[in-house]
Structure formats: structure tokens, C-alpha cells
Amino acid sequence: MFKNIQVKYILGLVIIGIATSAVASNFKTKSNLAQAESKPKVVASHNVICDLVKTVAQDTIDLTCLIDANQDPHSYNPTPSDSKAIEEAQLIFYGGYELEPQVTKLLSATKTPKIALYEQAVTKPMMVAEDHHDESAEKPAAESAASNELEPDPHVWHNVANTVKMVELIQAIFLQANPSAADQYLVNSKNLTEQLWQLDAWIKDRIATIPEQQKVLVTTHDSLNYYVKAYYLKDYQTLQGLSDKSSPTASQVRKLSAEIKKTGIPTIFAEATASDRVIQNVARAADVKLSTEKIYADGLGEAKNYFEMMSHNTCAIANGLGGKCQPFSPDYR
User: Fold this and answer.
1) How remote is the C-alpha of 135 from its chain's centroid?
2) Which side of the chain, N or C, has fewer Cβ within a 10 Å radius?
3) Per residue in 172-189, pLDDT tens?
4) pTM of the full structure
5) How many domains does the chain contain in total?
6) Do 183 and 206 belong together in one domain?
């Protein structure tokens, strides 16, 4: 089983930027897992995390993933089998920043080493309102102010640079936990990181094909802030804030429809894990197309892995807004 996992020590090394090769050298002096009779059991809460952990660790661990790619992590409720997996795990990765609140609540009761990957890899998140719409005319001032308090946006993986940081952290953790497989972890992480930077360059090139005046993204809820900032879209409008618990009001729908008309954009986008009923109404009111390609905002969606998810979203956005896009393939440059 995992021995001597000094999570705080690892995080400190990664956060202050010590080279991963130095981390590996230090970890090789620690206890190693090669003597274990069976593979260490690892749990990953979110499907994006699961994909990254699987790519780095491959067959050196017994990995259980909790939240399926088509499930909404914000509203996900753990199952009895999830609880059992957590009880038996020797290491747990979860997102943090309240992405999967019920999973986080369940994890608070376990003493198993656990890493909030999104929080630890991205220590300065973008801050957004849970409900970012101006409803001052419909709510008392105190209630309106309370509903618009800023909180960390957990959707950090939509900026590839953040995902690179996650890979570095995953690598560092496994290097300490199982130094006998260090070469495998280093090679896997290096290959993954190189492909991630290729993906990052490819996304920038695809978004650059969109006419400048049409670089305005409209989606269901506030989940693509990191993408919009990283890849130079001009504006981002949504029906809802971070939370999709409450439905937008009629005035919000009218306001968004009017703003869309002003921009002249040709297409707006629904999301795979959210109802598209209201966004359809917005599209009709604004007289624009609703893309048939739904955005995978809260996870991998129908994609097989992180690369396919980011490629799908980018091509949906680029093609929908008047740009050009073909699916990403490694060795782009």
C-alpha cells in the first residue's frame, strides 16, 4: 500500500516551482511500493482528473473513477459503491473549489491521504459570482448582494496551462508514492505535457480564425471563464452563474437576447449536462442559431479523453462563430 505520502511536502515543492526532476530524486529515497502484493487503490472523483491520473500512472495503480463523464459534478450524489471505494482507497484525488460538493463532504470523514487537485494546482483561481446576473430590480438590495458574492471558479481544466500544472502535481505525488516506477511516470508525464502544449497552440490558432467581431461566446452557465481568457475571446455571456440550481428569470432571458442581437454573433451554445430548454428560447428571441454541438463544460462529455473534449469544444466554438476547425491530432506542430 502507499507509504509515507507526505502530501503537504509534495504540494509545497510543486507550488514553489522546484523542478520535478529534483522532486523525483528526493522521492527515490523514500519507502517504495514495489513490494506491495497488489496494486495500490486510488480514487479520482472527477472524470477529467481520472483521465489525467490514468495517463500518468497507467497500470501501476488500481484506479476507481466516481463521476461519469456525462454527469454534472455540481449536483452529483455519491453512491454506496463510491463510499466503499473511498473507504478502501490508499490515495484520493478530487477537484475542490466546490466542484463536487457532496463528494467533498463524504471525503471529509476519511483519513486517507487526499489531494484537491484543482485547488492545489491552480492556487489563484478566477473569481466569479454564483449568480452573476444583475437582478437588483427584482430582489431586495441585501439579497441581491449576497447572491452575487464571488467564489472560485472550479472549471480550471478549460485552460490547458492549468492542466499542465495538474500533470506536474500528479507526477510528483506518484514519484514519492512509488519511486520504483519513477521512469514510467516521468516518461508518461513528459509525453502528456508535450501533447498538452501542442493542444494549447492548436486551440489558439483555431480561435484566431474567428472574425474578431464574432469572438463572443454565449453558453448556458458560467463554466468557460478560463477558456475565454486563455484563448482570447472578446466576451462571455451566460444564462446562469456557476450554479445551475435556479432557472433564469424572464427578464434575464430578455436581457441576454437583446445583448446577443447587438453583437451580431451567428451562434450560441447549449451544454451537455444542462437543460437546453431556456437557451433555445434565447436563440429564438435573438434570432440566432443554437449549435447542434453541445459544449462539454463540466467534464469530458462524450469525449474519450481530455484531448478529444477540448478539441470538440474548440471546433464547436470556432465553426459556430465563423472560424475554421478540424479535430486536433498530436504532433500538431
Assistant:
1) 28
2) C
3) 999 999 999 999 999 999
4) 0.86
5) 2
6) no
